[in-house]
Amino acid sequence: MKIMVLMGGTSAERDVSLASGEAIVQGLREAGHQVLAIDTSKGYKLPEHQTRFLPNGVKTEPPDVRALQTEGKKMALRTIESFSLSDVELVFLALHGGQGEDGTVQALLELSGIPYTGSGVLASALAMDKAMSKKIFEREGILTPEWFLLESSDSTDLSEVLRKVKNAFGYPAVVKPNDQGSTVGLTVVREEKNLAKAMDEAKIYAEKILIEKYIPGRELTVGVLGEAPLPVIEIVPEHGIYDYECKYTKGKSKYICPAELSIEKTKEIQELGYRAFKALGCEGYARVDFRYGTDDKFYCLEVNTLPGMTATSLVPKAAKASGIDFPQLVDRIAKIAIKKFKG
Ligand SMILES: Nc1ncnc2c1ncn2[C@@H]1O[C@H](COP(=O)(O)OP(=O)(O)O)[C@@H](O)[C@H]1O
Ligand SMILES: [Mg+2]
């Protein structure tokens, strides 16, 4: 197939996206496809012979938000229009976060009438909005950490927020932007006096701030490919929480796949992961993040509709554990997308 891979973009996950793009382009080529690599924020085709899009790899911190704003936001539109979509059979999305993952680019592709990988417009938008996702999880009986949302309008009265946290679940509490990824802007607040600073940090990245009860325990994630969950992965991050550095720096996290869980618990979390995926209406593939509480319960944190796709990312690791290598994985994702659009 002739496949266009979209990567880069202007979200805080730009670097991670370029790393995913690099791996996806290579994987698709190995699987025998003809690939066109596009950086949506630059508005250009990356040279045919180029294989490294982020030569120094992902840094320990996300790129500066102000620097990202200078990247061309409107370029995505122009880029997608300008590469004669008629002879591209499929768009493979290697974008992460922002408009590449929240349904905006998906809507643009719907309008262009070109098949694309992963979830559609609504599921992408729901999954990107953590509070919306949590409302659906609760409706479906999928446990999620206790929470409340601060709309930008009510986030200013600090004493009110302090009272709310104290009454709802106390400390530690987790403060995060409602629609970010890669643990960007997230803080675990252990004492009341640190809440304001955590809110300021989250506000850099989002209008709405989610405050959640901290779930002590283990970190687990379930990938879904097509209509089935993949083997469970346990993550043991060096920093206690799975932050940006632990996510993207080699050796900063230990990964155990399949996770050491009883057969019953493995089945339970895989079913939960698949149900969360279906509840939001996801398609193709995704990854569902959980905390495994010391109370022996699984708490669903979120669904990632465009999870990391470097050769060492979590979904590729889980796929590998079930005998699917990276080129086979991207080929499967591409074929699932084609099948969906052909109906
Ligand atoms: N309620 C929570 N309790 C404990 N740890 C949490 C909680 N929420 C988030 N974390 C930690 O922060 C990481 C990122 O949170 P997550 O909700 O998955 O957002 P992101 O979209 O940034 O990945 C998690 O993988 C986990 O390590
Ligand atoms: Mg996550």
Structural overview:
Helix 3 (75-82) packs parallel to helix 5. It is globular and about 60 Å long. It starts with a strand and ends with a helix. The mean pLDDT is 92. It contains 13 helices and 14 strands. By secondary structure, it is α+β, with helices and mostly antiparallel strands. It has three domains: 2-118, Rossmann fold (3-Layer(aba) Sandwich); 127-142 and 216-327, ATP-grasp fold, B domain (D-amino Acid Aminotransferase, Chain A, domain 1), CATH 3.30.470; 147-213, ATP-grasp fold, A domain (Dna Ligase, domain 1). 37% of the residues lie in helices and 21% in strands. The strands form three sheets. Strands 9, 10, 11, 12, 13 and 14 form a six-stranded antiparallel β-sheet that branches. Strands 3-2-1-4 form a four-stranded mixed β-sheet. Strands 5-8-6-7 form a four-stranded antiparallel β-sheet. The structure holds adenosine-5'-diphosphate (ADP) and magnesium ion. The site of adenosine-5'-diphosphate (ADP) has 19 residues, from strand 6, strand 8, strand 13 and strand 14.
Task: Offer a concise description of the structure.
The chain has 343 residues and is an alpha+beta fold.
Distance between the termini: 18 Å
The helix content is 25-40%
| Fraction in beta strands | 15-25%
- Which regions contain 5 or more consecutive residues with pLDDT less than 50? none
User: What spatial form do the alpha-carbon principal axes imply?
Assistant: globular
- Rg, Å, rounded: 19 Å
How many separate structural domains? 3
Given helix and strand content, the structural type is: alpha+beta
CATH topology of the largest domain: D-amino Acid Aminotransferase, Chain A, domain 1
> What's the CATH architecture name of the largest domain?
2-Layer Sandwich
Give the CATH level 1 class of the largest domain. Answer: Alpha Beta
- Give the biggest beta sheet: 6 strands, antiparallel
SS summary, helix count: 13
What is the ordering of alpha helices and beta strands?
A: EHEEHHEHHHHEHEEHEEEEHEHEEHH
User: Average pLDDT across residues?
Assistant: 92
For CATH, the homologous superfamily of the largest domain is named as ATP-grasp fold, B domain
Task: Name every ligand kind in the structure.
Answer: adenosine-5'-diphosphate, magnesium ion
Number of strands: 14
